[in-house]
Design brief:
The chain is an alpha/beta fold. The protein has helices at 3-18, 37-54, 63-67, 84-88, 93-98, 108-119, 166-171, 183-196, 203-223; strands spanning 25-31, 72-76, 126-132, 137-145, 151-155, 175-180, 230-233. The longest helix has 21 residues, at 203-223. The model has no long low-confidence stretch (mean pLDDT 91).
């Protein structure tokens, strides 16, 4: 694991150990499109779960094995995309669809509602939406955040944005991290990702999408970034891929 990721996991684990049993550790991880924030979020979530399991060894079905159930969960912001129907109902639907992924095409109020629910006592399951890429719309209540999930990694473009309601949601997080990346590296990753995912038919179309949408959004994300607890540098190596 990257040394900086190991340090972040150590920090999160230490904070988690200091919390009362009915409180969750909320980590908000932001960055521009193509920065690697999803890669980091998944790595931190997996490492926290691995550390918890290592401290609770035991045969399958034992009390120790039950105690080693995942303690961390990853919740991407993608599920808070407005639906295509909602975009079509906007005053300028063509622009809304073309700019999908911009801040105004997300349901920030619903995201704030989720974070508020997570900030309450961790005694009940809280549900978050996911994004169904097959139908290109959110899937409601698809991610279960269980009472056993003591750490929640919230990831997305706008989770550290200095604009309401994102600002209010970020204020409820225990940790705010931002993934920094060279703009040219982010653009290369975005072009490759759009072609690979079938979002664009070829590299030229993918580059237009990156320039006219993703990197326009990146300007706002950088200009309106809140103060953060950690600035994480995205590397150009096998550990930092595509996301």
């Amino acid at each position: 694991m990257d040394d900086q990721v190991t340090r972040l996991v150590d920090k999160a684990w230490g904070k988690l150990q200091q919390l009362p049993d009915d409180r969750r550790l909320l980590i908000a991880i932001a960055g521009i499109p193509g920065s690697g924030k999803t890669t980091l979020s998944k790595a931190v979530t997996a490492a926290l779960n691995a550390r918890h399991a290592a401290q609770n060894p035991g045969p399958a079905g034992s009390a120790a094995a039950a105690a080693a159930a995942p303690i961390a969960v990853f919740v991407p912001m993608d599920g808070f995309h407005l639906t295509r129907a909602q975009l079509s109902a906007m005053p300028d639907p063509a622009r809304a669809h073309a700019r999908r992924g911009a801040e105004f095409t997300f349901d920030g109020a619903a995201f704030l509602g989720l974070v508020r629910a997570l900030r309450g006592p961790a005694t009940a399951t809280v549900y978050a939406p996911s994004f169904d890429h097959a139908v290109k719309d959110p899937r409601p209540d698809d991610i279960a955040i269980l009472p056993a999930h003591r750490a929640v990694v919230l990831e997305g473009n706008y989770v550290c944005l200095d604009r309401e309601p994102w600002r209010a949601a970020a204020a409820l997080a225990d940790e705010r991290w931002f993934v920094a990346v060279d703009a040219a590296a982010a653009r290369r990753r975005l072009v490759a990702r759009h072609v690979r995912a079938g979002i664009a038919p070829d590299a030229a179309a993918a580059a237009r999408r990156a320039d006219e949408n993703d990197l326009v959004n990146a300007q706002q994300i950088l200009a309106e970034r809140l103060d953060v607890d950690e600035l994480v540098v995205s590397r150009e190596d096998a550990a930092w891929v595509h996301d």
